[in-house]
Amino acid sequence: MRMILAVCFAAFALSVQLRAEDSLLVPAPRLFILSQANQEVMNKAIGPVTVEAFDAFTLGHINDNATKVTISLASGPGQLQGTLTKPMVNGAVKFTDLMVTAPGSGYQFLISAAGYPPIKTLPFTVHAYGTPRQLSFSIEPSKDWFSGYDAVFSTQPVVAVLDGYGNLIADDNASAVTLKCVDPQGCMLLGTATVPVVNGHAVFTNLHLNAGVTGPVTLEAISSQQLIATDSTAF
User: Which of 33, 81, 135, 215 is most buried (most C-beta within 10 Å)?
Assistant: First the structure.
């Protein structure tokens, strides 16, 4: 009886050892984030976020060309837009057109794929705007030409200070914007043609033209910060 028990125990111990050895040979696929978001700006593509597949046991690269990887928001106040699911190519995938719909801090991405444990990126911040770069007419000027050349514009222009991605620089209260008439030749802009920027906008109130000018007319907006100037729509 003791002989039989000893043989059974030995067989059981051997089976446990074989299963343990076999488990060491089973691949352990994992995802690794090569590049991720950091300090981002609204309306600008985030990242890119690059993910690679590897084996946690061997630390070797997994040449996966079939699995689809999905990126989503794990946290943050906005919504994620862009191409959110892409297939791996040679074990890697790169998300290049991601954007979120609201500024804020504490954003994190969740990255998931079938057969791989999900992972999260480090927290990052999305700012409402970047560095001031350009001007844009947020309200275009217009004029009722039947009221006479010297009548004030029926719609007075408003010029916005923007970053390079079209975001309003809402805390700009230090610069100024000057308007001048650039077309037709000989036109002059009368009234208060230089006004301070308040909360990112330069608001004009009493502009009109010199004698004898007929439309169409084009105005140019110039910033005291030497930002990229802009022209109005002809009116």
Answer: 135
Identify the residue whose tokens are 């100037």.
Answer: 229
From 68, 97, 127, the end of a domain falls on: 127
Total domains in the fold of the chain = 2
Where is the domain boundary, 104, 127, 150? Answer: 127
Global pTM reads 0.72
- 186 class by beta-carbon count within 10 Å (0-12 exposed, 13-18 middle, 19+ buried): exposed
3-state secondary structure of 4: helix
Give the integer Cα–Cα distance in Å for 235 and 178.
Answer: 18
N residues, the chain = 235
Model confidence pLDDT, tens digit, residues 117-169:
999 999 999 999 999 999 999 999 998 876 666 779 999 999 999 999 999 99
How far apart CA 124 and CA 116 sit, in angstroms, is: 24
d(CA 188, CA 209): 6
* Pair (122, 147) in one structural domain: no
CA–CA separation, 221 and 232 (whole Å): 8
Cα 91 to Cα 112: distance, rounded to the nearest angstrom = 14
In sequence order, the 6+-apart residues with CB closer than 8 A to the CB of 1 are none
Q: Is residue 23 part of a domain?
A: no
